[in-house]
Design goal:
By secondary structure, the chain is α+β, with helices and mostly antiparallel strands. About 30% of the residues lie in helices and about 20% in strands. The structure holds heme C (2 copies). One heme C binds next to helix 9, helix 10 and helix 12.
Length: about 400
Protein backbone atom coordinates (compact mmCIF):
# COMPACT_ATOMS: atom_id res chain seq x y z
CA UNK A 1 0.00 0.00 0.00
CA UNK A 2 2.69 2.45 1.06
CA UNK A 3 4.67 1.00 -1.77
CA UNK A 4 2.27 2.04 -4.48
CA UNK A 5 1.87 5.47 -2.96
CA UNK A 6 5.58 6.09 -3.08
CA UNK A 7 5.99 4.71 -6.54
CA UNK A 8 3.30 7.08 -7.71
CA UNK A 9 5.10 9.99 -6.12
CA UNK A 10 8.28 9.11 -7.87
CA UNK A 11 6.59 9.56 -11.20
CA UNK A 12 5.65 13.09 -10.41
CA UNK A 13 7.28 16.09 -11.92
CA UNK A 14 10.44 17.70 -10.75
CA UNK A 15 11.31 21.33 -10.64
CA UNK A 16 13.95 23.54 -11.99
CA UNK A 17 14.58 26.45 -9.79
CA UNK A 18 15.69 29.80 -10.92
CA UNK A 19 16.35 31.95 -7.87
CA UNK A 20 13.12 31.00 -6.21
CA UNK A 21 11.00 30.65 -9.33
CA UNK A 22 9.65 27.15 -9.72
CA UNK A 23 9.12 25.71 -13.16
CA UNK A 24 7.78 22.23 -13.43
CA UNK A 25 9.21 19.76 -15.86
CA UNK A 26 7.92 16.46 -17.07
CA UNK A 27 10.37 13.94 -15.81
CA UNK A 28 12.61 13.60 -12.84
CA UNK A 29 15.82 15.27 -13.77
CA UNK A 30 18.79 13.12 -13.01
CA UNK A 31 21.22 15.85 -12.09
CA UNK A 32 24.24 13.59 -11.92
CA UNK A 33 23.79 12.49 -15.49
CA UNK A 34 23.35 15.99 -16.68
CA UNK A 35 26.37 17.87 -15.48
CA UNK A 36 26.24 20.75 -17.92
CA UNK A 37 23.35 22.61 -16.37
CA UNK A 38 22.76 26.07 -17.64
CA UNK A 39 24.12 28.86 -15.55
CA UNK A 40 21.59 30.45 -13.24
CA UNK A 41 19.32 27.44 -13.09
CA UNK A 42 19.59 24.55 -10.81
CA UNK A 43 17.89 21.33 -10.11
CA UNK A 44 15.66 20.57 -7.20
CA UNK A 45 15.34 16.87 -7.63
CA UNK A 46 12.45 15.06 -6.08
CA UNK A 47 13.70 12.05 -4.25
CA UNK A 48 12.37 8.69 -5.19
CA UNK A 49 11.75 6.22 -2.47
CA UNK A 50 14.00 3.27 -2.87
CA UNK A 51 11.91 0.25 -3.72
CA UNK A 52 9.63 0.17 -0.71
CA UNK A 53 10.82 -2.34 1.74
CA UNK A 54 7.53 -4.01 2.50
CA UNK A 55 9.25 -7.41 2.55
CA UNK A 56 11.74 -6.30 5.19
CA UNK A 57 9.02 -4.75 7.27
CA UNK A 58 6.81 -7.86 7.09
CA UNK A 59 9.74 -10.05 8.04
CA UNK A 60 10.40 -7.79 11.03
CA UNK A 61 6.78 -8.14 12.16
CA UNK A 62 7.19 -11.92 12.15
CA UNK A 63 10.59 -12.11 13.85
CA UNK A 64 12.15 -9.47 16.08
CA UNK A 65 9.01 -7.51 16.87
CA UNK A 66 7.24 -10.28 18.80
CA UNK A 67 10.47 -10.96 20.73
CA UNK A 68 10.65 -7.31 21.74
CA UNK A 69 6.99 -7.25 22.74
CA UNK A 70 7.50 -10.29 24.95
CA UNK A 71 10.74 -9.27 26.59
CA UNK A 72 11.62 -5.61 26.34
CA UNK A 73 8.50 -3.51 26.89
CA UNK A 74 9.14 -3.25 30.62
CA UNK A 75 11.34 -0.32 29.65
CA UNK A 76 11.13 0.16 25.87
CA UNK A 77 7.39 0.54 25.27
CA UNK A 78 6.01 3.74 23.75
CA UNK A 79 5.21 4.94 27.25
CA UNK A 80 8.59 4.98 28.95
CA UNK A 81 9.18 3.30 32.26
CA UNK A 82 9.72 6.25 34.64
CA UNK A 83 12.48 4.37 36.44
CA UNK A 84 14.48 3.50 33.35
CA UNK A 85 14.38 6.10 30.62
CA UNK A 86 14.93 4.14 27.45
CA UNK A 87 14.14 4.52 23.74
CA UNK A 88 10.60 3.38 22.76
CA UNK A 89 12.09 0.86 20.34
CA UNK A 90 9.69 -1.93 21.23
CA UNK A 91 6.47 0.04 20.74
CA UNK A 92 3.33 -1.87 19.74
CA UNK A 93 3.21 0.16 16.54
CA UNK A 94 5.45 -2.03 14.43
CA UNK A 95 6.44 0.83 12.11
CA UNK A 96 7.72 2.86 15.05
CA UNK A 97 9.55 -0.15 16.37
CA UNK A 98 11.00 -0.94 12.93
CA UNK A 99 12.53 2.43 12.34
CA UNK A 100 14.24 2.36 15.72
CA UNK A 101 15.49 -1.18 15.42
CA UNK A 102 16.92 -0.67 11.96
CA UNK A 103 19.30 1.86 13.50
CA UNK A 104 20.70 -0.72 15.95
CA UNK A 105 21.85 -3.18 13.36
CA UNK A 106 24.83 -3.38 11.10
CA UNK A 107 23.77 -6.11 8.71
CA UNK A 108 27.29 -6.58 7.45
CA UNK A 109 28.54 -7.34 10.97
CA UNK A 110 25.51 -8.51 12.85
CA UNK A 111 27.49 -9.61 15.91
CA UNK A 112 28.82 -6.09 16.39
CA UNK A 113 25.39 -4.52 16.22
CA UNK A 114 24.28 -2.38 19.10
CA UNK A 115 21.34 -4.63 19.86
CA UNK A 116 23.66 -7.64 20.21
CA UNK A 117 25.92 -5.64 22.50
CA UNK A 118 23.02 -4.60 24.67
CA UNK A 119 21.76 -8.14 24.96
CA UNK A 120 25.24 -9.60 25.53
CA UNK A 121 25.76 -7.29 28.49
CA UNK A 122 22.21 -7.86 29.84
CA UNK A 123 22.07 -4.10 30.37
CA UNK A 124 18.55 -4.43 31.82
CA UNK A 125 19.97 -5.87 35.05
CA UNK A 126 20.99 -2.32 35.98
CA UNK A 127 17.40 -1.16 36.03
CA UNK A 128 14.35 -1.85 38.19
CA UNK A 129 12.33 -4.78 36.84
CA UNK A 130 15.19 -5.98 34.65
CA UNK A 131 15.70 -9.23 36.55
CA UNK A 132 12.69 -10.77 34.82
CA UNK A 133 14.27 -10.56 31.36
CA UNK A 134 15.50 -13.94 30.19
CA UNK A 135 16.39 -13.07 26.58
CA UNK A 136 19.63 -14.66 25.39
CA UNK A 137 22.01 -13.57 22.68
CA UNK A 138 20.96 -16.60 20.71
CA UNK A 139 17.26 -15.63 20.82
CA UNK A 140 18.10 -12.27 19.31
CA UNK A 141 20.56 -13.71 16.81
CA UNK A 142 17.84 -16.09 15.58
CA UNK A 143 15.28 -13.31 15.32
CA UNK A 144 17.70 -11.08 13.42
CA UNK A 145 18.57 -13.90 11.05
CA UNK A 146 14.88 -14.58 10.41
CA UNK A 147 14.29 -10.89 9.78
CA UNK A 148 17.21 -10.71 7.35
CA UNK A 149 16.56 -13.97 5.53
CA UNK A 150 12.80 -13.40 5.56
CA UNK A 151 13.04 -10.23 3.49
CA UNK A 152 15.32 -7.52 4.84
CA UNK A 153 18.14 -8.76 2.62
CA UNK A 154 16.07 -7.79 -0.43
CA UNK A 155 15.70 -4.25 0.83
CA UNK A 156 17.84 -1.43 -0.49
CA UNK A 157 20.74 -0.46 1.65
CA UNK A 158 20.24 2.50 3.90
CA UNK A 159 23.93 2.85 4.42
CA UNK A 160 26.35 1.20 6.76
CA UNK A 161 25.61 3.54 9.66
CA UNK A 162 22.25 5.06 10.37
CA UNK A 163 21.81 7.98 12.73
CA UNK A 164 19.24 8.03 15.50
CA UNK A 165 15.99 9.56 14.24
CA UNK A 166 15.23 13.24 14.83
CA UNK A 167 11.64 14.38 15.17
CA UNK A 168 10.23 16.57 12.41
CA UNK A 169 7.35 17.82 14.53
CA UNK A 170 6.97 21.59 14.97
CA UNK A 171 6.54 24.59 12.73
CA UNK A 172 8.25 23.95 9.43
CA UNK A 173 6.56 26.65 7.38
CA UNK A 174 10.00 28.28 7.09
CA UNK A 175 13.45 26.75 6.77
CA UNK A 176 14.63 25.35 10.06
CA UNK A 177 17.83 23.40 10.74
CA UNK A 178 17.26 19.84 11.93
CA UNK A 179 20.19 17.98 13.35
CA UNK A 180 20.99 14.35 14.10
CA UNK A 181 23.97 13.04 16.04
CA UNK A 182 26.48 11.21 13.92
CA UNK A 183 26.60 7.51 14.69
CA UNK A 184 29.19 7.43 17.47
CA UNK A 185 31.15 4.52 16.06
CA UNK A 186 34.49 6.21 16.48
CA UNK A 187 35.94 8.82 18.77
CA UNK A 188 36.36 11.27 15.90
CA UNK A 189 32.66 11.24 15.12
CA UNK A 190 31.47 11.21 18.70
CA UNK A 191 30.38 14.82 19.11
CA UNK A 192 29.60 15.35 15.46
CA UNK A 193 26.27 16.29 13.95
CA UNK A 194 24.79 16.06 10.52
CA UNK A 195 22.16 18.67 9.83
CA UNK A 196 20.01 20.03 7.03
CA UNK A 197 17.64 22.92 6.65
CA UNK A 198 14.13 21.67 6.19
CA UNK A 199 10.64 23.01 5.57
CA UNK A 200 7.25 21.67 4.53
CA UNK A 201 5.61 22.86 1.34
CA UNK A 202 2.69 21.24 -0.48
CA UNK A 203 2.86 18.08 1.56
CA UNK A 204 6.57 17.51 1.09
CA UNK A 205 9.65 17.99 3.20
CA UNK A 206 12.36 19.95 1.46
CA UNK A 207 15.94 19.52 2.58
CA UNK A 208 18.92 21.69 1.68
CA UNK A 209 22.35 22.85 2.86
CA UNK A 210 23.52 19.63 4.48
CA UNK A 211 26.60 19.82 6.63
CA UNK A 212 28.53 18.00 9.30
CA UNK A 213 30.05 19.78 12.24
CA UNK A 214 31.53 19.14 15.66
CA UNK A 215 34.07 16.61 14.42
CA UNK A 216 37.62 16.60 15.72
CA UNK A 217 39.54 15.62 12.61
CA UNK A 218 38.64 16.05 8.96
CA UNK A 219 35.98 13.54 8.07
CA UNK A 220 35.51 11.71 4.83
CA UNK A 221 31.95 11.07 3.79
CA UNK A 222 30.53 9.18 0.86
CA UNK A 223 26.87 8.65 0.06
CA UNK A 224 24.25 9.98 2.41
CA UNK A 225 20.79 8.41 2.45
CA UNK A 226 17.71 10.22 3.64
CA UNK A 227 15.65 7.87 5.78
CA UNK A 228 12.10 8.68 6.85
CA UNK A 229 10.47 6.32 9.36
CA UNK A 230 12.96 3.64 8.40
CA UNK A 231 12.43 3.97 4.66
CA UNK A 232 15.30 5.11 2.51
CA UNK A 233 15.01 7.63 -0.29
CA UNK A 234 17.21 8.18 -3.28
CA UNK A 235 18.26 11.74 -2.91
CA UNK A 236 20.83 13.88 -4.61
CA UNK A 237 22.57 13.89 -1.24
CA UNK A 238 23.43 10.27 -1.78
CA UNK A 239 25.88 11.40 -4.45
CA UNK A 240 27.96 13.33 -1.98
CA UNK A 241 31.60 12.51 -1.79
CA UNK A 242 33.64 14.82 0.23
CA UNK A 243 35.95 15.83 2.97
CA UNK A 244 34.70 17.94 5.82
CA UNK A 245 37.15 19.98 7.81
CA UNK A 246 36.42 22.18 10.78
CA UNK A 247 37.88 25.52 9.73
CA UNK A 248 39.70 28.08 11.85
CA UNK A 249 36.49 30.12 11.86
CA UNK A 250 34.61 27.12 13.30
CA UNK A 251 32.58 26.29 10.19
CA UNK A 252 32.58 23.33 7.85
CA UNK A 253 31.67 23.41 4.20
CA UNK A 254 28.20 22.72 2.92
CA UNK A 255 28.19 19.21 1.42
CA UNK A 256 25.81 19.62 -1.47
CA UNK A 257 24.32 22.40 -3.52
CA UNK A 258 21.07 20.48 -4.01
CA UNK A 259 17.65 20.78 -2.54
CA UNK A 260 15.74 17.55 -2.34
CA UNK A 261 12.23 16.63 -1.25
CA UNK A 262 10.27 13.65 -0.01
CA UNK A 263 6.59 13.25 0.88
CA UNK A 264 5.37 14.04 4.38
CA UNK A 265 3.86 10.93 5.94
CA UNK A 266 2.60 12.19 9.29
CA UNK A 267 3.93 15.59 10.28
CA UNK A 268 3.31 14.97 13.98
CA UNK A 269 5.24 11.72 14.22
CA UNK A 270 7.63 11.55 11.27
CA UNK A 271 11.18 10.68 12.24
CA UNK A 272 14.13 11.56 10.05
CA UNK A 273 17.44 9.73 10.05
CA UNK A 274 20.38 9.70 7.72
CA UNK A 275 22.39 6.72 6.56
CA UNK A 276 26.06 6.87 5.65
CA UNK A 277 28.09 4.39 3.69
CA UNK A 278 31.51 5.70 4.35
CA UNK A 279 32.07 8.06 7.21
CA UNK A 280 35.34 8.24 9.03
CA UNK A 281 38.02 10.52 10.35
CA UNK A 282 41.00 11.15 8.09
CA UNK A 283 44.36 12.80 8.86
CA UNK A 284 44.78 16.53 8.50
CA UNK A 285 45.78 17.50 5.00
CA UNK A 286 47.30 20.39 3.06
CA UNK A 287 46.77 21.50 -0.51
CA UNK A 288 49.49 20.00 -2.67
CA UNK A 289 48.98 22.05 -5.80
CA UNK A 290 49.16 25.55 -4.38
CA UNK A 291 50.57 26.98 -7.60
CA UNK A 292 47.47 26.00 -9.55
CA UNK A 293 45.20 27.18 -6.74
CA UNK A 294 46.79 30.64 -6.84
CA UNK A 295 46.73 30.82 -10.60
CA UNK A 296 43.17 29.77 -11.27
CA UNK A 297 41.15 30.07 -8.08
CA UNK A 298 42.67 32.85 -6.04
CA UNK A 299 43.01 35.16 -9.01
CA UNK A 300 39.34 34.68 -9.80
CA UNK A 301 38.32 35.32 -6.18
CA UNK A 302 40.18 38.62 -6.41
CA UNK A 303 38.87 39.52 -9.84
CA UNK A 304 35.23 38.79 -8.88
CA UNK A 305 35.49 40.41 -5.46
CA UNK A 306 34.20 37.41 -3.54
CA UNK A 307 35.82 39.06 -0.53
CA UNK A 308 33.26 41.90 -0.59
CA UNK A 309 30.99 39.42 1.17
CA UNK A 310 33.31 36.61 2.27
CA UNK A 311 35.96 38.91 3.82
CA UNK A 312 39.70 39.06 3.28
CA UNK A 313 41.97 41.19 1.05
CA UNK A 314 41.35 44.04 3.52
CA UNK A 315 37.57 43.83 3.17
CA UNK A 316 35.33 43.30 6.17
CA UNK A 317 32.77 41.14 4.37
CA UNK A 318 29.28 40.37 5.64
CA UNK A 319 28.36 38.17 8.56
CA UNK A 320 26.07 35.88 6.53
CA UNK A 321 28.73 35.05 4.00
CA UNK A 322 31.63 34.84 6.47
CA UNK A 323 29.68 32.56 8.79
CA UNK A 324 29.55 30.00 6.03
CA UNK A 325 32.84 30.61 4.22
CA UNK A 326 35.38 32.96 5.66
CA UNK A 327 37.95 34.00 3.05
CA UNK A 328 39.80 36.18 5.54
CA UNK A 329 42.28 33.38 6.09
CA UNK A 330 45.87 32.60 5.24
CA UNK A 331 46.57 31.08 1.87
CA UNK A 332 46.73 27.46 2.96
CA UNK A 333 43.52 27.76 5.01
CA UNK A 334 41.75 29.40 2.13
CA UNK A 335 42.95 26.69 -0.20
CA UNK A 336 41.65 23.92 2.08
CA UNK A 337 38.32 25.73 2.56
CA UNK A 338 37.82 25.96 -1.19
CA UNK A 339 38.99 22.40 -1.72
CA UNK A 340 36.57 20.87 0.80
CA UNK A 341 33.69 22.53 -1.07
CA UNK A 342 34.82 21.14 -4.39
CA UNK A 343 34.51 17.68 -5.80
CA UNK A 344 36.44 16.27 -8.69
CA UNK A 345 33.65 13.85 -9.60
CA UNK A 346 30.43 15.76 -9.05
CA UNK A 347 31.99 18.69 -10.72
CA UNK A 348 29.71 21.63 -11.46
CA UNK A 349 27.33 20.49 -8.76
CA UNK A 350 29.91 20.91 -6.05
CA UNK A 351 29.17 23.94 -3.84
CA UNK A 352 32.49 25.46 -4.87
CA UNK A 353 31.17 26.01 -8.35
CA UNK A 354 27.38 25.80 -8.05
CA UNK A 355 27.10 28.67 -5.57
CA UNK A 356 28.92 31.39 -7.51
CA UNK A 357 28.17 30.05 -11.00
CA UNK A 358 24.62 28.68 -10.79
CA UNK A 359 23.40 30.84 -7.94
CA UNK A 360 22.00 28.03 -5.80
CA UNK A 361 20.30 28.74 -2.47
CA UNK A 362 19.91 32.39 -3.40
CA UNK A 363 23.65 32.96 -3.83
CA UNK A 364 24.42 35.82 -6.24
CA UNK A 365 25.62 34.66 -9.65
CA UNK A 366 29.08 36.16 -9.28
CA UNK A 367 30.65 34.24 -12.11
CA UNK A 368 28.52 34.92 -15.18
CA UNK A 369 30.36 32.69 -17.63
CA UNK A 370 31.28 29.11 -16.92
CA UNK A 371 34.49 29.50 -18.95
CA UNK A 372 35.89 31.65 -16.17
CA UNK A 373 36.10 28.71 -13.81
CA UNK A 374 35.73 25.65 -16.02
CA UNK A 375 37.66 23.57 -16.52
CA UNK A 376 40.44 25.29 -14.57
CA UNK A 377 38.84 25.00 -11.09
CA UNK A 378 37.87 21.41 -11.69
CA UNK A 379 41.30 20.52 -12.94
CA UNK A 380 42.75 22.04 -9.81
CA UNK A 381 40.37 20.07 -7.55
CA UNK A 382 41.22 16.87 -9.39
CA UNK A 383 44.95 17.57 -9.23
CA UNK A 384 44.72 17.69 -5.44
CA UNK A 385 43.58 14.04 -5.44
CA UNK A 386 42.19 14.49 -1.94
CA UNK A 387 41.20 11.00 -0.86
CA UNK A 388 40.13 10.22 -4.36
CA UNK A 389 37.59 13.04 -4.48
C1 LIG B 1 14.54 -2.91 32.93
C2 LIG B 1 14.64 -1.98 31.85
C3 LIG B 1 15.08 -2.47 30.50
C4 LIG B 1 14.68 -3.62 29.84
C5 LIG B 1 13.71 -4.68 30.30
C6 LIG B 1 15.35 -3.59 28.57
N1 LIG B 1 16.12 -2.48 28.46
FE1 LIG B 1 17.17 -1.91 26.85
N2 LIG B 1 17.71 -0.18 27.77
C7 LIG B 1 17.30 0.20 29.02
C8 LIG B 1 17.82 1.51 29.33
C9 LIG B 1 17.59 2.30 30.60
C10 LIG B 1 18.59 1.91 28.20
C11 LIG B 1 19.40 3.21 28.02
C12 LIG B 1 20.63 3.22 28.90
C13 LIG B 1 21.54 2.07 28.59
O1 LIG B 1 21.94 1.90 27.44
O2 LIG B 1 21.86 1.32 29.53
C14 LIG B 1 18.48 0.82 27.25
C15 LIG B 1 19.09 0.82 26.00
C16 LIG B 1 18.90 -0.14 25.05
C17 LIG B 1 19.43 -0.08 23.71
C18 LIG B 1 20.21 1.09 23.13
C19 LIG B 1 19.20 2.13 22.76
C20 LIG B 1 19.74 3.34 22.07
O3 LIG B 1 18.89 4.09 21.51
O4 LIG B 1 20.96 3.57 22.05
C21 LIG B 1 19.06 -1.21 23.07
C22 LIG B 1 19.37 -1.58 21.63
C23 LIG B 1 18.30 -2.00 24.02
N3 LIG B 1 18.21 -1.32 25.20
C24 LIG B 1 17.77 -3.23 23.72
C25 LIG B 1 16.96 -3.93 24.58
C26 LIG B 1 16.32 -5.19 24.26
C27 LIG B 1 16.48 -5.89 22.91
C28 LIG B 1 15.59 -5.56 25.34
C29 LIG B 1 14.76 -6.79 25.51
C30 LIG B 1 15.37 -8.06 25.18
C31 LIG B 1 15.79 -4.55 26.35
N4 LIG B 1 16.61 -3.57 25.86
C32 LIG B 1 15.23 -4.59 27.63
C33 LIG B 1 16.50 -0.53 29.87
C34 LIG B 1 15.95 -1.76 29.61
C1 LIG C 1 27.10 39.61 -2.56
C2 LIG C 1 27.69 38.76 -1.57
C3 LIG C 1 28.49 37.55 -2.01
C4 LIG C 1 29.47 37.47 -2.97
C5 LIG C 1 30.03 38.60 -3.84
C6 LIG C 1 29.92 36.11 -2.98
N1 LIG C 1 29.24 35.37 -2.07
FE1 LIG C 1 29.46 33.39 -1.70
N2 LIG C 1 28.06 33.47 -0.22
C7 LIG C 1 27.38 34.60 0.15
C8 LIG C 1 26.51 34.28 1.26
C9 LIG C 1 25.59 35.24 2.00
C10 LIG C 1 26.67 32.89 1.51
C11 LIG C 1 25.99 32.04 2.59
C12 LIG C 1 24.76 31.40 2.01
C13 LIG C 1 24.09 30.53 3.03
O1 LIG C 1 23.73 31.01 4.09
O2 LIG C 1 23.93 29.34 2.75
C14 LIG C 1 27.64 32.42 0.54
C15 LIG C 1 28.04 31.10 0.43
C16 LIG C 1 28.99 30.64 -0.46
C17 LIG C 1 29.42 29.26 -0.57
C18 LIG C 1 28.88 28.08 0.24
C19 LIG C 1 29.62 28.06 1.55
C20 LIG C 1 29.15 26.98 2.52
O3 LIG C 1 29.95 26.07 2.81
O4 LIG C 1 27.99 27.05 2.96
C21 LIG C 1 30.37 29.21 -1.56
C22 LIG C 1 31.13 27.98 -2.04
C23 LIG C 1 30.54 30.55 -2.04
N3 LIG C 1 29.69 31.40 -1.35
C24 LIG C 1 31.47 30.91 -2.99
C25 LIG C 1 31.65 32.21 -3.45
C26 LIG C 1 32.65 32.57 -4.42
C27 LIG C 1 33.69 31.62 -5.01
C28 LIG C 1 32.48 33.90 -4.67
C29 LIG C 1 33.22 34.74 -5.66
C30 LIG C 1 33.45 34.16 -6.99
C31 LIG C 1 31.39 34.35 -3.84
N4 LIG C 1 30.91 33.30 -3.12
C32 LIG C 1 30.92 35.65 -3.81
C33 LIG C 1 27.50 35.87 -0.41
C34 LIG C 1 28.37 36.21 -1.44
Amino acid sequence: MICSRILKNSKRACFLVSTGLLLSCADRLKPMENPQLETGRFAIAKAEAKAECETGFKAFEGSLHPLLRNNCIGCHDSTPNPQAVAAPHSAANSHTSYYYQITYIDWSKMEDSKIMDKVRTAHWKKYPGGDNVKTSEDDVRKALTMWWEGGQKDCPSLGKFISKPASLAGDLSNWKRVSVNLPNETDVLKDGHFSVETKIENGRYYFRKPFIDGVKLPVRVKRIYTVLNGRGYDTPFDQIKGIVEQEASGTTGVLSSHTTSIPVENAATDALSFGFDDLKGVPKFECVNMEEFKKSVKTEIQRRNCTNCHGGEGKAGTANAKNRLNMDANESELCRAMLTRGNGQYTVESPLIAYPLSGVNGHPVVIPHSGEVLPSWLNWVKSEKLHGF
